[in-house]
């Protein structure tokens, strides 16, 4: 059986919205403090509670025998900020492990490395908003996939942008039309450090 944090991740994945502790408490008819205590105690969810959550959120959590879920524990770098704007500097690299439903991660594989960072700025709005948490699939030498969103370092600053690659340049695009398209010439390719591709956006961790 799954634990409370795992249930929150699963409901978030099935509904397409980030579910917080208060919303889960409402669905189960208990207080948020009870949810918080159960998370600390790592208590498991009962079948009847899964059924209550199914009814409340109008989703399917149970098959005929067991809940269908898989959770990955990924590193969340709490003080790492990647800019959806004009660039920001990493202040520290403190991290914590967070449980995330693998159904939230596009193309999830146990053989890939993932981490979570924070987004700042509005250049990728409305796709990514200021304060969103971004799950990054770390780059392993693959070719840049045109028009996918990447996090990268350039001139000692971190950015989150859509990238496309031509023979002699990399095109950098924002989703917010207020920001102009930029390019990096082949002569400056060595100055770009590709960290990874954005494979999920998390609106809240509460």
Describe the protein's architecture and organization.
With 206 residues, the chain is an alpha+beta fold. The protein folds into two domains: 54 residues, 434 Repressor (Amino-terminal Domain) (Orthogonal Bundle), CATH 1.10.260; 132 residues, Ribbon (Umud Fragment, subunit A). Helix content is 20%, strand content 33%. The protein has four helices and nine strands. A nine-stranded mixed sheet has the order 2-1-3-4-9-5-6-7-8, covered by helices on one side. A hairpin with a 3-residue loop joins strand 6 and strand 7. Helix 2 crosses helix 3. The chain is elongated and about 60 Å long. 30% of the residues are buried. About 2% of the residues have low confidence.
Attribute tags:
206 residues; alpha+beta; 434 Repressor (Amino-terminal Domain); Umud Fragment, subunit A; 20% helix
Strand content: 25-35%
Main sheet properties: 9 strands, mixed
**Low confidence ranges:** 64-68
What is the fold-level CATH name, i.e. the topology of the largest domain? Umud Fragment, subunit A
> What Rg, in angstroms, do the CA atoms define?
19 Å
């Amino acid at each position: 059986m799954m634990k409370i944090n795992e249930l929150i991740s699963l409901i978030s994945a099935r509904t397409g919205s980030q579910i917080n502790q208060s919303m889960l408490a409402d669905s189960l008819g208990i207080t948020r403090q009870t949810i918080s205590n159960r998370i600390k105690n790592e208590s498991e969810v009962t079948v009847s509670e899964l059924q209550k959550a199914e009814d409340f959120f109008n989703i399917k959590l149970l098959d005929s025998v067991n809940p269908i879920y898989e959770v990955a524990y990924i590193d969340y770098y709490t003080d790492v900020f990647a800019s959806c704007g004009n660039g920001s500097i990493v202040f520290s690299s403190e991290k914590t492990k967070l449980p995330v439903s693998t159904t939230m991660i596009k193309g999830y594989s146990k053989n890939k490395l993932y981490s979570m960072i924070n987004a700042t700025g509005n250049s990728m709005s409305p796709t990514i908003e200021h304060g969103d948490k971004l799950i990054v699939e770390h780059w392993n030498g693959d070719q840049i996939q045109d028009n996918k969103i990447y996090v990268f370092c350039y001139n000692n600053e971190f950015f989150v942008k859509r990238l496309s690659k031509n023979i002699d340049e990399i095109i950098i695009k924002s989703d917010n039309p207020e920001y102009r398209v930029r390019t990096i010439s082949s002569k400056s390719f060595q100055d770009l450090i590709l960290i990874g591709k954005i494979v999920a956006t998390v609106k809240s961790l509460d």
